[in-house]
Amino acid sequence: MQKSKCPFCNMELNFINPSHLKKHNIKMYEFKKKFPNICVCSDAFKEHLKSISGNSLGKHSSIEARNKIAKSHIGKKDSLETRKRKSESRIGNKNPMYGIHRFGKEAPMFGKKQSENSREKNRNAQLILYSNEYYKSKRVKASLKGNKRGITKPEMILDIILQKFFPNEWKYVGNGEFILAGKCPDFVNINGKKKIIEMFGDYWHKNDNGENRKNLFKQFGFDTLIIWQSDLYQNPGKVYERVFKFSKI
To answer: What is the torsion angle, in degrees rounded to the nearest 10, for the CA atoms of residue 238, residue 204, residue 194 and residue 160?
Structure first.
């Protein structure tokens, strides 16, 4: 059985791997594109893999097996030495993605589309993940943190009113500190009442229905007050009265 031969140095190899191609300043995907007829894995090496893997070659672990493996890793962390070694192994051109353009025509996936079956599988997988409240909350918090979500001007004005006239009763949590039903409320009562105040901006919430938000939070026992940006700017006194009545209920 013949080995695979590198077209650059004529070296015979069981497997033309990325480490060898790095010596020739070429990535694996570039190599396959440039030499589509060259098999990177020799027949001898394939037979060797079959012999050591038995009947498991090309087969996927069951969901139960994958869950068992995942649970066995929960709470375990790599040592500082291991993390440092992994980090150093991926710096600069050591990173397998180094020099690969992810955008534009040079991107490996440019012009390619997923099949309808593949898209349906992805959709179903995401629906299953987001049906878990813990996962949903974790993703929302990560998104807010990544976008560096800070307090907006209308929220800041409302917060000044709340802290001045209702001290030690309301707290701003719009930065992702508190997630409920996959949503990030703006203010939550910290005085023992399950109450929420939402600050709706006229632009960002123009297509939102306040009643839907109220009904969503009501499922978890929270009463909700919706305040629109235009009402806050045009008549802050009326907003104060609404908050006063809402807080006393």
So the answer is: -50
What does the block give as tokens for 120? 């349906």
Amino acid symbol at 187: F
Q: What is the pLDDT of residue 91?
A: 82
Domain count, the chain: 2
User: Whole-angstrom Cα distance, residue 105 to residue 164?
Assistant: 56
DSSP one-letter code for 147: T
Go through the chain and tell me how many residues it has: 249
Instruction: List helix spans (H) across 89-209.
Output: 116-130, 133-146, 153-165
Radius of gyration of the chain (CA): 28
Would residue 231 count as lying in a domain? yes
Which two tokens mark 57? 């070659």
Range of the domain at 193: 153-248
Which is it for the CA torsion 33, 38, 41, 46, positive or negative? Answer: positive
Rounded Cα distance between 61 and 63, Å, is 7
Mean pLDDT of each 10-residue bin along the chain, 249 residues long: 83 87 88 88 78 68 83 84 86 71 68 85 86 78 71 92 92 88 90 93 87 92 94 93 90
190's CB contacts (< 8 A; 6+ apart) are 168, 169, 170, 171
Are 108 and 158 members of one domain?
no
